[in-house]
Sequence to fold (810 residues):
Amino acid sequence: MNIAIAQSGGPTCAINASLVGAYAEALKYPQIDAIFGSINGIEGIINNDLIDLKNFIRSNDDMELLKQTPSTVLGSCRYKLPDEEDDTSIYEKIMNCFIKHDIKAFFYIGGNDSMDTVLKLSAYAELHKYDVRIIGIPKTIDNDLCATDHTPGFGSAAKYVATTVQEIVCDSAVYSIESVTIIEIMGRHAGWLTASTCVIRANGVNAPHLIYLPEGNFSVDRFVEDVKREQAKHKALVIAVSEGIELDDDNYRSGVTDNFGHKYLSGIGKQLENIVRQKFGCKVRSIELNVMQRCSSHICSKTDIDEACAIGAAGVRAALAGETGKTMVFKRISDIPYIIDIVSVPASETANKEKFFPKEWITPDGTNVNEHALRYFLPLIQGENVLRMRNGMPEHFKIKEEVLK
Amino acid sequence: MNIAIAQSGGPTCAINASLVGAYAEALKYPQIDAIFGSINGIEGIINNDLIDLKNFIRSNDDMELLKQTPSTVLGSCRYKLPDEEDDTSIYEKIMNCFIKHDIKAFFYIGGNDSMDTVLKLSAYAELHKYDVRIIGIPKTIDNDLCATDHTPGFGSAAKYVATTVQEIVCDSAVYSIESVTIIEIMGRHAGWLTASTCVIRANGVNAPHLIYLPEGNFSVDRFVEDVKREQAKHKALVIAVSEGIELDDDNYRSGVTDNFGHKYLSGIGKQLENIVRQKFGCKVRSIELNVMQRCSSHICSKTDIDEACAIGAAGVRAALAGETGKTMVFKRISDIPYIIDIVSVPASETANKEKFFPKEWITPDGTNVNEHALRYFLPLIQGENVLRMRNGMPEHFKIKEEVLK
Fold:
């Protein structure tokens, strides 16, 4: 029998580690022959675009290199399967690909949208008696997947963000004038990554002074009051804000306009920058951590990478034990010492659902997070991998461009 | 006798290393008693705001920690001394501070503006027979200081930028659709830091596909042609552009407008993003590396940090040898093996001047840089310091907030 692995959704620093984890585990079982990589997520299965991973990942060295390579080495997609009732042809194409290549297990590394694919494919296969097991391996820097303590990729993103925010705090403090620095952080509708900036407190850095999450009730008026109050205490004010926040007052929503009259709404950071400039007239800067949050593998969390490997391997074992339609998840046994367990849950518990930052971890005034959050986040950013460097830069694993097209 | 050290201008990852270098060297000489730190650059001398560094930097451990701490631990300023003819009172204030504290040598770590201070102060002291030596220690991520092969701080910025651009290249390549990623890089009017992105070629990464420097003649029309031509070759196009570039066509200069009608010109990255969206309609993203370029000490260049220490120490030796009105500079002896020498030049050679990226290192079509650039940049980003970590984040040296005000 053969198996296939695919990667989907937005890149992270850990998604290749999950690929390595699944691949290395599969190598241990003599009943598994070929291990296919599907190019660009499920699209590779639909288009019969598979590569034999053994031709590309040939050694432990290759695996180590792949683990320190950000993004998805097999490419990605944002493809949503139609409902079975609407279109069975795609499902049949996929099942035919599985049959043609004797693929008895398919592993989909992705976020909550990808778990929808796991759910639908496994249901279809079971209903129509196709002999293939479908397992979801979670990944997302947003940490918004349900039923799991946290998601692979999140710890590395949080470590990058914490390290960078700590450095920005140093940078912002140099001049003797008042300043406001606004840092816009990813996470879609969930505030996890923004909230994780609280970890720098563990190192005695009293910042960010204000933290705004989509889970709080953001108000422009309150924001102005918050800045006024905190600026009296901190010469160099540092604010962390989630990209998912929307202003409650249309008068303050600002945008980029080009000279053709096209207008694009700015990010929330730029909008808050404009409000501060309006209201306070002080030095103000907004910073978008942008894609660096999801691809800065040079400062990845060893805990995250190790866990991403482990959950990939656990997925292979679950499939071999006969499971299908499952998402592999972390259960946290304890914070200190940090102990997690990997188990499987029905993919329906994770597909198309979002897990939000707990309201009870937000301070009553809605401008910061409490000790529960700190205890939750800290274990996830621990440890550093010793990077293989080349010419003064991290070395990355490459699959030839022709293969990826 | 005592000495004083101050830091000025924009923060870098290496400016504290130069402080450590000067401090550690000064400790070796029994004739030097107190080593003062001036808070917020020359403003600390003017305002009599000095701290005795021996009370703060107490051990080798402290020095190691300070070397891995970004930004200016003593604060900074953007203060330009008036011409002597216009106002001697400031000069007298400064000289009085030197006399009051028995300061016989003053070390100013900064860029070309700070070298203006070195030049003016040393001329004034000589003319009026004040017994104090004034030495400039260079620093700037812009690498635009004259008379030196390169500046401390630049190598670490270049290493961060190269590492990050390499990761962004991975990130941008994941989807099967065409995309353009525009990375805006600092450097003021000089293209050094943007040009340094060419180093990723040494690792076999064929990117950035287009590099635009202020030293080239940027034209919107040519840019559109360039993108069209390169997009035919590269599905995921990556473009590096210097913040200092101005569009030649006013019709394309776009800005951020708030609903109060206030308009701010966007950065060049955002402006080019709008042009690409207009002209090509494809997926396009602009990324500002922002202050992370100058403060990401977690991925600093060991070569840079070591050199920053060494040039600080050399400054102290120069002052003790009787020199004044000098800037310490690097002379490159050879690229391979990389050998540099540290010498002093008259501060007039560096003050208020800018060194631009050599036109002969730009490719004839103006969209990239050649092998000379690669050979120049590569040695500067070599080596990594083993960081002292705490709670999963780099540990930083702190001087109490009350001291820095």
User: Anything to note?
Assistant: Chain A has two domains: 2-142+149-153+297-353+385-404, 157-295.
